[in-house]
Amino acid sequence: MTKPATFKYFKTSPEIIRLTVMLYIRFPLSLRNVEDLLHERGINVSHETVRYWWNRFGPVFAAEIRRKRVQQLRAISNWNWHVDEVFVKVNGKRHYLWRAVDHEGEVLEVVVTKRRNKAAALKILKKLMKRYGKAETVVTDRLASYRAALRELGALEKQQTGRWLNNRAENSHLPFRRRERAMQRFRRMRSLQKFASVHSSVYNHFNQERSLTSRGTFKLTRTAALAEWRELGAG
Q1: H or E element: which one contains 86?
Q2: Handedness of CA 154, 157, 158, 162 (dihedral sign)
Q3: Tens digits of residue pLDDT in 144-153
Q4: Cβ count within 10 A of residue 51
Q5: Strand, coil or helix: 101
Q6: What would the pLDDT profile of 5-52 be if each residue is shown by its tens digit?
Q7: What pTM does this model have?
Q8: Strand partners, 95
């Protein structure tokens, strides 16, 4: 049995839908900002259509990107994980956004929890191990929940803490923070988890680390990433 096309029953062309989803997720734009940008290009859609498209296709595109990257990352045998958590307000209540990145800044996993305890730390660490295997080292801050979770997993000797060691994870929160301000925060924990997961996959896809490469290399990798994006959901 063949898999039905992602864009079946949609009258709008897939190219416009992909462009809309990319603009909204990748850049710190509101729904109405994206509507205005599309209108400037002669595309007449409402902000509610933008909302529907990203909710419908964002997770599909993110899953496709993540599936390809997991296959590549699992082949790495010697790597480090950097895990960190930040406060996030959801409908006026404090929640915690846990993020794990590798030694190159690739976002591996994003988890939203109501508490910052051992169970929450176990949740993200177990998801990491299930999807990517085991790391050589796990860099964290001095939060006691990490130590308790790693002790239960039998990987306490892999933990590393230090004042500057976890800058990689702390800096990885910045793109999402900019995006959060544009969205005027979140009203449900479920919507935060959904958007954070999709945003991390799209960020991974387009993050070329331009400061570490020449202009020529950056242009080639950026073009390749955009060409790959235009093929998402085509199968």
Answers
A1: strand 80-90
A2: positive
A3: 999 999 999 9
A4: 13
A5: strand
A6: 588 888 899 999 999 999 999 999 999 999 999 999 999 999 999 999
A7: 0.86
A8: 88
Domain ranges of the chain: 80-172
First to last CA, the chain: 14
Residue pair 64/73 in contact (Cβ under 8 Å)? The answer is no
Give the residue carrying structure tokens 């999709």: 198
Distance separating alpha carbons of residues 115 and 118, to the nearest angstrom: 9
Do residues 134 and 154 make contact, with C-beta atoms less than 8 angstroms apart? no
Half-sphere exposure of 95 (CA within 13 A, CB side): 21
Integer Cα distance of 192 and 214 in angstroms: 36
Beta strands at 107-113 and 159-161: parallel, antiparallel or unpaired = unpaired
Q: Which CATH architecture fits 80-172?
A: 2-Layer Sandwich (3.30)
What is the predicted pLDDT for the residue at 1? 36
Q: Where is pLDDT greater, at 111 or 3?
A: 111
Cα(210)–Cα(222) distance, integer angstroms: 9
Reading the block at residue 190, the tokens are 């479920």
> DSSP string of 133-186?
---SEEEE-S-HHHHHHHHHTT-GGGEEE-TTTTHHHHHHTHHHHHHHHHTT-B
Please answer whether residues 45 and 38 qualify as being in contact, where contact means their C-beta atoms are separated by less than 8 angstroms. Answer: yes
Among candidate residues 1, 46, 43, the one with its CA nearest the CA of residue 19: 43
Query: Can you give the pLDDT at residue 77?
Result: 53
Nearest-angstrom CA–CA distance, 48 and 13: 17
CB 140 within 8 A of CB 166: yes
Q: Please tell me what DSSP assigns to residue 3.
A: P
- Taking the mean position of all CA atoms in its chain, how far away is CA 69? 12
